[in-house]
Amino acid sequence: MKQEYDVTGMTCSSCAIHVERSVNKIPGIGEVKVNLLTNTLTIDGATQLDDAIILQAVDAAGYGATPKQVTATEKSHDPRLLVAKELQTMKKRLILSFAFAIPLMYLAMGHMFGWPLPTFFLGPEHASSLALTQLLLAGAVCYFNRHIFISGFKTLFKGAPTMDSLIALGSTAAMVYGIYALYKIGIGLGQGDMVIVTHFAMDLYFESAAMILSLVLLGKYLETKAKGRTSDAVSKLIDLSPKFATVIRDEREVQVPVEQVALGDTVVVRPGGRFPVDGTVLSGTSAVDESALTGESLPVEKLVGDVVLSASVNTTGRLVYRADRVGEDTTLAQIIALVENASASKAPISKLADRVSAVFVPIVIGIALLSTLIWFLAGQPLESALAFGIAVLVISCPCALGLATPTAIMVGTGKGAESGILIRSAEALEAVQAVSTVVLDKTGTITAGKPQVTDVVPSAKVERSKLIQLSASLEGASEHPLAQAVLALAQKEHITLLEVSDFKAIPGKGLQGTIDAALVIGGNEAFMEAQGVDISELSTQATAMAMDGKTPLYFAQDSQALGIIGVADVVKASSTAAIARLQKMGLEVVMLTGDNERTAAAIAKKVGITRVFASVLPEGKEAVVRQLQAEDKKVVMVGDGINDAPALVRADVGMAIGAGTDIAIEAADIILMRSDLQSVPTAIRLSKATLKTIKQNLFWALFYNTLGIPLAAGVFFTAFGWRLNPMFAALAMSFSSVFVVTNALRLKRFKSDKNEIKEIKEESKMKKTILIEGMTCMHCVGSVEKALSALPGVEAQVDLKSNSATVTVPANISDAQLRTAVTEAGYTVTDLKEVG
Question: Catalytic one among 265, 441, 569, 676?
Answer without folding.
Answer: 441
